[in-house]
Design goal:
Strand content: 25-35%
Order of helices and strands: HEEEHHEHEHHEEEEEH
Distance between the termini: 41 Å
Bound molecules: zinc ion
Amino acid sequence: MSTKQTHRKDSRKRPLAEDFVRHDERKPRLPARLEFICAYDSVVQICDMLEVLYLRRIKGRDELWMAFGLDVINRDGFVESTHPAVISGLAEECKRVFSAQADGDKADAARRMLEIHVRGNHGFKWPNRFVKGGLIDKPAFQQMLVDLEAELKANAAKARTYENAPIVVAARELGLHPRPTGTGPIHWEATCPGTNHTIMIGAESNEFGCGYCRGKGGPDELREFVKQRWETKARIVAENGGGDNE
Ligand SMILES: [Zn+2]
């Protein structure tokens, strides 16, 4: 299993810039041929996280790459360089977010991919401060956020007309705090009981579904799903409680 690592170390293709930064061989790093898109802070629960995005156009595909988790000391010095090798050395994690067929000029592609990325993370994190621009500048970034927020607000207002739908009422009675997601005019979500994730609610179809727990169905199935969840939790607590004195 160390053969692969030895080959990597001996590779003559290693970019020169990487020699200037300390890095951990086990940590994924940003590849070569990236173009800096932009960097911004996102709110994740109560923390701000710096996200640094890059575009990589290769073999007819566009890839969105992200580095995040720069520590507090380094993030202030970050404005000096957006070179992938430097950022790789500072970031906690680097990853390819997704890829799509290459289409149009790079600035347009970067804008489309940023929007998909931000939409996909809605409910978990949301950008709150622009830090540095590349393919996307501050005005374009802020306009995208204004448009997205208006869309989410309009969707949530439409979804609220379903607040008396049986599945929404059931979720409320069960203490799952149902709320419109903003992602569509009939999209609601609620807390999956005893977990940190959400269940999806279709207000028009009167159905719920949890992709993690694989539970789904109508209001009756939701009541049964919640009942079983609490019964299981109570059993685990009772079992563990027996070993408390050891
Ligand atoms: Zn679940």
